[in-house]
Amino acid sequence: MITEPIHLALFEEDQINEAAEAISILRSQGVPDRNISVISGVPLSEHILGRPMSWSRVGLIGLVGAVAGFLAALAITYLPVLIYPLNVGRMPVFPIPTTLVVVFELTMLGLLISTLLGVFVETITPSYGPHGYDPRIAHGKIGILFTCPPEVDCESYDQLVALGAELTHNLQERKLWP
Length: 178
Prior knowledge:
By secondary structure, this protein is an alpha+beta fold. It folds into two domains: about 5-50 and about 125-175, 2-Layer Sandwich (Alpha-Beta Plaits); about 60-125, no CATH class. It has helices at about 15-30, 45-50, 60-85, 95-125, 150-160, 170-175, and strands spanning about 5-10, 35-40, 140-145, 165-170. The protein is rod-shaped, with a radius of gyration of 26 Å. The two termini are about 15 Å apart.
């Protein structure tokens, strides 16, 4: 739980380098990455701002769904043949070409359904970083939300203002956070 005040540094949309420098300044002053959030109307990758890559579990969930669909397809196509073998002329007991279609379709169906569920789970999973918003972000500004101890506050303020940031202190008192 974050008990320190939440601060917001706003940069113009063409000040991406300054925003990246602000993040590195905050890190050098001992603010951990979990206490820094970037909000922007334009999606910015982690590499542009020098942030660590955020990982998602959607790919792993999709892979598990594909494996489950593959196993279900094998069970649907081969278990009946194993339980009730039926030899017809010179046809093989396990018809490979016709089975490939069913296996492919059920594998992709498992992948799609599990990916959809994975995206849904990722969106409802709570985030524990600082939360806040400023309406100027919708008009092209880049916002950096951060919490820092009071002893680092003045140093951060001076250095971020020198980079060209507009700073808003203690968003909790201004009621700009959920």
